[in-house]
Amino acid sequence: QQQVKQSPQSLIVQKGGISIINCAYENTAFDYFPWYQQFPGKGPALLIAIRPDVSEKKEGRFTISFNKSAKQFSLHIMDSQPGDSATYFCAAGFRGQFYFGTGTSLTVIP
Amino acid sequence: DAGVTQSPTHLIKTRGQQVTLRCSPISGHKSVSWYQQVLGQGPQFIFQYYEKEERGRGNFPDRFSARQFPNYSSELNVNALLLGDSALYLCASSLYRADGYTFGSGTRLTVV
């Protein structure tokens, strides 16, 4: 059973547009929800994270929206840039043990 | 400051062999976790260590084992390698158990 479901699998956005990636989780015990960015040949890099006591967190161009009742959270990338082209993973966990989504391959077209 | 360092970066092993992967966490980080990432998929949790004790184990067979040393570095051992063990093995560290983890670049293991 997949603990975290992520969509879409791939996303193509024009430069300057908004990229939106969605995730849903099952386990209500999860209390930490990070997003990671991964470039080919590299490990995942932590972008932004949220705890379930807040509904939104913004850091620069990246925003997490969190809906506890629906058990869903999403990543919004504003003013998307070609350098944002990478694979994005959502994750959810408890006490540092994380379950990852299957990833979204984002391509930003100049 | 050095990030999470893993060695070796690449490794080729034969089925049935044993392998040891090494990880040095960010200085001061006490928690280390190991993940397996198969090509095209998200990382899967294998182990978590905090203060040198195993604090969590994912759904992996007993062929997988790990330990954390007094300096907080860690080793992941895999015995009786199978072709399906071919993957990127990621180590991640954090100051505390529940924080966001910083990943290393991983060890690419190929089993032939």
Percent of residues of chain A in beta strands?
over 45%
- Helicity of chain A, as a percent range: under 10%
Radius of gyration of chain B, whole Å: 13 Å
In DSSP terms, counting alpha (H) and pi (I) runs of 4 or more, how many helices of chain B? 0
Largest sheet of chain B, in brief, is: 7 strands, mixed
Roughly what fraction of the amino acids of chain B lie in strands? over 45%
The rough form of chain A would be described as globular
**Low-pLDDT residue intervals, each spanning 5 or more residues of chain B:** none
- How many E-type strands of chain B? 11
Shape of chain B: globular
Q: Helix fraction of chain B?
A: under 10%
Determine the oligomeric state from the structure: heterodimer
| Structure class of chain B | mainly beta
On the 0-100 scale, what is the average pLDDT of chain A?
A: 95
Mean pLDDT of chain B: 94
How would you characterize this protein structure?
The complex is a heterodimer of chains A (110) and B (112). Chain A has 110 residues and is mostly beta strands. Helix content of chain A is 0%, strand content 57%. In chain A, strands 2, 4, 5, 9, 10 and 11 form a 6-stranded mixed β-sheet that branches. In chain A, β9 and β10 form a beta hairpin. The radius of gyration of chain A is 13 Å and the shape is globular. The model of chain A has no long low-confidence stretch (mean pLDDT 95). Chain B has 112 residues and is mainly beta. Helix content of chain B is 0%, strand content 51%. Chain B has no helices and 11 strands. Chain B has strands at residues 5-7, 10-13, 19-24, 31-37, 44-50, 53-57, 64-68, 74-78, 87-94, 102-103, 107-111. In chain B, the strands form 2 sheets. In chain B, strands 2, 4, 5, 6, 9, 10 and 11 form a 7-stranded mixed β-sheet that branches. At the A-B interface, β5, β9 and β10 of A face β4, β5, β9 and β10 of B.
